[in-house]
Structures are given as structure tokens and as C-alpha cells.
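Box S1 | Example of a co-folding query
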Amino acid sequence: MPEETHSLKLRLRQLGRAIAVMNLATVWLLVSKGPKVAVEYLTQSARYFHGFGFIWRWHELPWRHHYRLPKASAASLFPGVDFDHSPEVWFPFPRNLGVYTHELGVLANVVNRLQPKRVIEFGTAEGRTALNLAAYLPAEGELVTIDMPPKPPTNYVGFFYWNHPLKSKIKQLHGDILRFDWSTYRNSAGVVFCDALDDYEGSREETRIAFGLVQAGGAIFWHDYGSAEGVTRMLNDLSRELPVCHIEGTTLGCLAVPDEHARERLCRWSANGSER
Ligand SMILES: C[S@@+](CC[C@H](N)C(=O)[O-])C[C@H]1O[C@@H](n2cnc3c(N)ncnc32)[C@H](O)[C@@H]1O
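Box S1 (continued) | Returned holo structure for S-adenosylmethionine
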């Protein structure tokens, strides 16, 4: 899809969401406090409307009645890892739309155990997960993370690691994941973390790319199972074909890739969008 059409569709969707949650309070804020506050209010309302907030009411949202992924404890998926203890985590306080601290702990524990030469993250944002996973890589390991090109002065991609000693282990890529040329990274990552696109089609495409990048013996993780509708529905459908799990107590989906046979299966899926 051409970039302009994609961004027009995105803007129309945002406008639709804004209209859906518009109310008198927005108008009052617009008049009394100006457009910045009104837009902020609309943004937060749209997020609640789409289920990012009110965790205690998640079970009432219709699309959350259809969890399909089997639940598995982190310990059963990665035997030998001590998930009863947290690894050291940098910037543990919750971040808006970011991974929960205990999810960072799970991911860091897995990286610490697998000691992959490369981890690939889709969606850098502030770089909090990138930094925390880089901390547990082996000496020669690298964390490759991608986000859209910076748009100064409002874009702070990766700022958590900008001045951090671990910066040398992080390779920041800029570009659209769906258009990026991933050929040099094929079959090279011990862990792939999908955390960029949250609509159904986007997250499915992200998944298709991830399948071509992961190595045998590695694992793929998705953020937002149960907290973003698109990702949740996409993983539900994927679980009809592949053994994806929902890690108990988290919003992480996980697919372990135990051997070459499993990896080839993912490559076929990646090429065809299904196993056929
Ligand atoms: C939820 S945030 C990522 C959070 C980050 N992984 C963390 O744990 O802190 C999603 C990020 O994905 C980026 N993103 C969304 N669509 C993208 C695309 N098509 N290509 C590259 N980056 C994208 C957004 O700019 C945003 O910074």
C-alpha cells in the first residue's frame, strides 16, 4: 500500500476514534483550555474505549471473551529459568502503553538463559525494553531494534539508552518494519519481540517477518495479547495453525522454536501467510 494511502487510512481511523469518544467535556476543554488539552483528553478516552485502560474491566469487553491461546507458565515454557526471582531491571516504573515490569523480567530472564547472539525488537519507542534486553546478552551479542525515522523535535526513539553504557550493544534501525529489507537478518535472531503494529493486518505482517528472522532454538514474543484487540484476534487465529501460548499473568504471547523442523514450518508460513 502506498505510504500516503496508509497514513490517510491511519488518520481517518484516528478521526473516527476521536468522534466515537467525543462528548461535551471535550468541547468544554477545547474552549476553556485549548486544543492540546482537548486532544490529550480525546486520546486517553479513545484508549479506554478500545480497552487499553481499566484492566479490572477487561473481562467485560466482548473481544476478550474469545481468548484462544492456551495459557502456559513462563517456567513450563523455559525450564531451568528461575522466574521466581526478578533480574535487575532499568527504569522499572510503568510507562504509558509500555510492557509491564514483570513482563520485562520474563523477557530478560529468557534472554539471560538463551544467550542469543542477536535479539530483534519491532518497535523501539523509548528504548526501555531494548536497554533491558541488551543488558542480558552475551558479550558479543547485539540488540537490533527498529522504529519509524525520527521526527525532531518531538521524537525520542531510544532515549533511555542514548547515554547509557549499554548503547554499544544496541543497533537502532529506522524505517517502516513492513518495508524494511530484512534479508541480511534472516534466520539470525535467538529472540524476536513483536511490539510495533497493533491492528490485525499489521501485527500479522509483523509476525510473518518475525518468522523469517528467528533461529532454531529461539523464541518469538508478542506484546499486547489481551490488551490490544488486533494483536489478540491475530494470535487467536494463529493458534489454529501454530502452538502459540499466552504466558500466564502477562500480556505476552510466545512461540518457542525448538528445532530446525519448527523453524522451517515458520518459514513456510512466512512465505505463504499460512502453512499451505
Ligand atoms: C508500543 S511501542 C513499543 C514499545 C517498546 N517495544 C517498549 O517495550 O518499550 C510501539 C512502537 O512501534 C512503532 N511502530 C509502529 N508501527 C511501526 C512500523 N510500521 N514500523 C516501525 N515502527 C513502528 C511506534 O512508532 C512505537 O514507537
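The radius of gyration is 19 Å. Residues 97-99, 121, 123, 125-126, 128-129, 146-148, 176-178, 195-197 surround S-adenosylmethionine (CB under 6 Å).
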